[in-house]
Amino acid sequence: MEQQKTSPWLIAFRVIFTFALIACIAFIFRNSLETGAQSSVRSQELMALLNKLLGKLHFGPLSEHTIRKLAHFAEFTMEGFLLMLCLRVYTAHFVRHMSWPLLGGMTTALMDETIQRFIPNRTSSVTDVWIDMAGVVCGLFVALIILLIVRLVTAFYAIKKENRELRAEQARLRRAQQEAEHERLARQAMRHYKEEQP
Prior knowledge:
Elements: H1 8-33, H2 36-56, H3 64-90, H4 99-117, H5 126-196
Helix pairs in contact: 1-3, 1-4, 3-4, 3-5, 4-5
């Protein structure tokens, strides 16, 4: 049995999404390896930037605690998004295998909190694992919605193309039938003409 060739685009997407996922997980673990003081400085810098932006939009300031929890949610949302895209480029049955990215996200969240237990002035928290998993689920659903929209649009254009080809084939058959009818009438007229000749 002849094996179907893998599309170069699919191979490219596999490489891109796999490296993006690895980079995302590496970024999460790098943040976990920072000491409490380093992490606090980064959180305060981000808090100042966000509160400045929120002030322009007339929204209240965010605390450092809220910023840290939002950062957890955001980085794991990105991981969930990339996990879903990776799953899609490795299998066409991505909805059936949703447990794989969920397990991957849970593993990363648990490892992230375990790393923090051994870093000076850092603590691990069950709440953070729940926030991380909520981010993973959010990222998965965003990616899933995008993939389903892409699938619907692709199916719509495939049907349009098929209908166009079908109409073209019907038009070709009609022309062939008309030509055959013209030929038949021409032959019939010629036969009558010959019969009428003395």
